[in-house]
Q: What sequence folds into this?
């Protein structure tokens, strides 16, 4: 059964005028239920992430500054959300959801988080709407528990996974692969194990050619026993933060290729949703929903 992490707190209330599309976290599960892709039993509500699992990745000073709401103003501005007790709780629940998804993926082949993909979060600070790095926390959890020995993070959000790259720069058990827009945020990029900077305006054909040439070879070389997939839909031509000019169908083909590859090679995969900032919310929902539709089609 496809298991999907979702918690009402994912839809965090932002001040009026804030441009981050929080409503997608509520509308996406509604759409999946409405169309029959998922049933109520597919969804589960994560609990709150423990301090122990947070401190496996993040520094105690950073965590306590969030917990006590004492983060200085410049650091808070880098995150981009108004800091609050609810926001910190939300970040912890999202990360626990990704851990839970990993355990489900070990049993079912795949599991998905309606939120997550918070790859701009570093060990000691947050950036770009990211407080805690959910996939980094979950990767450390898998390694500590002995559930995985070799992990591949496939980050296909339009923005480089800078925080994730930095966290694992000296960890030979985790290979970070980021395929992102060359001219996009962050403008000072970190060094992943493999970075592919896709030129602005490339479109479906170029994007998919690069991915299909790269991923199978990478898996063959690295031989991961677990994969994290960050499936951001901000590669779309409609995305106001994008620039890669991919279509909804091209984005769907990207997801199909990644998920089918994992299924064919019997490698469990956890999927975190990542970014999506098209002006029309229906486009964001359709592109994200495709990822979940394909998970059902390919794995179940």
A:
């Amino acid at each position: 059964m496809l298991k999907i992490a979702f918690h009402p707190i994912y839809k965090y209330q932002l001040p009026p005028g804030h441009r981050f599309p929080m409503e997608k976290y509520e509308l996406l599960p509604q759409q999946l239920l409405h169309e029959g892709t998922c049933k109520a039993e597919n969804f589960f509500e994560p609990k709150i992430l423990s301090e122990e699992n947070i401190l496996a990745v993040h520094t105690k000073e950073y965590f306590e500054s969030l917990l006590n709401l004492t983060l200085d103003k410049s650091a808070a501005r880098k995150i981009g959300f108004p800091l609050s007790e609810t926001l910190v709780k939300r970040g912890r629940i999202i990360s626990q959801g990704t851990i839970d998804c990993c355990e489900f993926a070990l049993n079912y082949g795949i599991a998905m988080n309606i939120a997550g993909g918070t790859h701009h979060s570093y060990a000691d600070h947050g950036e770009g709407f990211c407080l805690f790095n959910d996939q980094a926390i979950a990767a450390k959890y898998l390694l500590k528990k002995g559930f995985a020995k070799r992990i591949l993070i496939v980050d296909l959000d339009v923005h480089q996974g800078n925080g994730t790259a930095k966290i694992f720069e000296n960890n030979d058990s985790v290979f970070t692969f980021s395929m992102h827009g060359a001219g996009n945020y962050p403008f000072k990029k970190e060094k992943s194990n493999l970075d592919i900077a896709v030129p602005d305006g490339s479109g479906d054909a170029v994007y998919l050619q690069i991915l299909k040439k790269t991923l199978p070879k990478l898996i063959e070389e690295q031989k991961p026993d677990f994969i994290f997939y960050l499936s951001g839909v901000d590669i779309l031509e409609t995305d106001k933060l994008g620039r890669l000019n991919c279509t909804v169908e091209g984005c769907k083909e990207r997801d199909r290729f990644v998920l089918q590859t994992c299924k064919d090679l019997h490698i469990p995969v956890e999927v975190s949703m990542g970014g999506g900032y098209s002006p029309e919310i229906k486009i964001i929902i359709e592109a994200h929903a495709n990822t979940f539709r394909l998970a059902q089609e390919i794995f179940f």
